[in-house]
Design brief:
- This protein is an all-alpha fold and about 425 residues long.
- It is about 80% helix and about 0% strand.
- It is globular, with a radius of gyration of 21 Å.
- Keywords: Membrane, Transmembrane, Transmembrane helix.
- It comes from Variovorax rhizosphaerae.
- This is O-antigen/teichoic acid export membrane protein.
Length: about 425
């Protein structure tokens, strides 16, 4: 693909993801402004519980797809077969996620007195959302690997528009105990739209529904296990870390603190633009690129650009916090001095994820378990010294955790950079 075509793809995907951030920002602004803090705390908790469940269904499996497909990314049957086989394990692990998240959901629901019809129906809706998200992830992965970027953009735009319109309609109604349930129903409806559109698009693009034969399934499982097993322990740990601040607030904080932590989490949504553009356009290229000096140069350049963009975002939070806080509404205006803390933690953890994905698409997942003792040590020391009973303390805990993740992932990337830059033929 020439430079002009690649630039068009970047602009197209970047435009859709920017639109997605705008739509999500508007939807988030509506939700935060309209819902009382008690209901927003419920919404925050259910989002965290569903993210935890979805994370347990992954634990690194999603990072196996590109390395296993390898240079056969142009073979539709092979791509679909590999994706179906790897995602079959994700469905099994989703059941395990339900067993883990269930007690956590019950404890917080019961202790906060949230057991009521509207909340229970909302919880059921979020389980349905998780199921649809997993199905959407499968179809999206197939479309990304096969390079159907325009279809991905069209489906994303339609799902985003559906969610925004339905959430707006729900929040125009008088606020009741059923408002959160309505917001979740709108999210479920947009997920269903995406699933149906992906099914139609893949059928129109003549992408076959393939299941590998027993021999190929065995080969895929063996290859995926080599990548996945080093990720399992840190995967469990890191997915819990992904919702750590909400977990801490829900276990040790007030309902108001839980709502504030959830509201602040929305500020990191801007980073989704960069991450999704790189997921669609950059990492498939890195997975297919031949090992050698050129690959090493590409890795260095993209990480320099990524870290530069993150620094600019942090500076905007330090000097323009009042503009960021506008996304949250008047109820949260007193949190403006803390905006930089939230953005700093988001920048660090996203950069750590960027380094990890660079390694993962090349199958370099060894030594990821080192991150567990490092981060746990940092967290225990922080918890012992500062506690997590205020929003400042929770955000500080998040910064310490993110910094530890950042340091370990970039150390691992640095140690493997020479491997990426070594010509494969010369090394063999």
């Amino acid at each position: 693909m020439n430079l002009k075509a690649r630039l068009r793809q970047v602009l197209a995907v970047g435009g859709i993801e920017t639109l997605g951030v705008v739509f999500a920002g508007i939807a988030g602004l509506l939700i935060v402004n309209v819902l009382p803090k008690e209901q927003y705390a419920q919404y925050t908790f259910l989002v965290a519980a569903s993210n935890l469940m979805l994370g347990i269904s992954d634990l690194g499996l999603a990072h196996c797809v590109l390395p296993v497909i390898g240079t056969r990314a142009g073979e539709k049957s092979w791509v679909v077969g590999v994706c179906n086989q790897i995602f079959s394990w994700r469905w099994v692990m989703l059941s395990a996620g339900m067993l883990v998240v269930g007690p956590y959901w019950f404890y917080n629901t019961h202790s906060r007195g949230w057991i009521e019809p509207a909340y229970l129906i909302g919880s059921a809706l979020y389980f349905a959302i998780v199921v649809m998200q997993l199905r959407e992830h499968l179809s999206n992965t197939v479309a990304v690997v096969l390079g159907h970027i325009s279809a991905i953009n069209r489906i994303a735009a339609m799902a985003l528009a559906t969610r925004l319109v339905l959430i707006g309609a729900v929040l125009l109604l008088p606020v009741t105990d059923w408002s959160v349930t309505g917001v979740l129903a709108a999210t479920a409806a947009s997920g269903l739209v995406a699933v149906v559109m992906y099914r139609r698009a893949l059928r129109k693009l003549e992408v076959p529904e393939v299941r590998l034969d027993a021999a190929d399934r065995k080969k895929v499982d063996q290859h995926a296990l080599k990548i996945f097993l080093p990720l399992l322990a840190p995967g469990v740990f890191l997915h819990v870390q992904g919702v750590a601040t909400v977990l801490l607030a829900s276990m040790f904080g007030s309902t108001e603190l839980l709502a504030e932590v959830g509201a602040f989490g929305r500020l990191a949504i801007v980073l989704i633009v960069v991450d999704r553009v790189t997921n669609v356009l950059l990492f498939p290229v890195l997975a297919r690129a031949p090992q050698g000096p050129r690959l090493g140069r590409i890795v260095l350049l993209v990480h320099a650009a990524y870290l530069g963009a993150m620094v600019l975002m942090l500076l905007s939070a330090i000097y323009g916090g009042r503009f960021w806080i506008m996304l949250l509404g008047a109820k949260y205006h007193d949190l403006e001095p803390l905006v930089w803390m939230m953005i700093l933690s988001a920048v660090l953890i996203n950069a750590a994820g960027f380094a990890f994905r660079t390694l993962a698409v090349r199958g370099l997942t060894a030594k990821q378990s080192y991150i567990v003792p490092v981060v746990l040590t940092v967290q225990v020391l922080y918890f012992w010294v500062f506690g997590v009973h205020t929003l400042e303390a929770v955000l500080g805990f998040n910064i310490a955790t993110s910094l530890a993740n950042f340091a370990v992932q970039y150390l691992l990337l640095g140690t493997r950079l020479s491997h990426l830059r070594t010509d494969q033929e010369a090394a063999s």
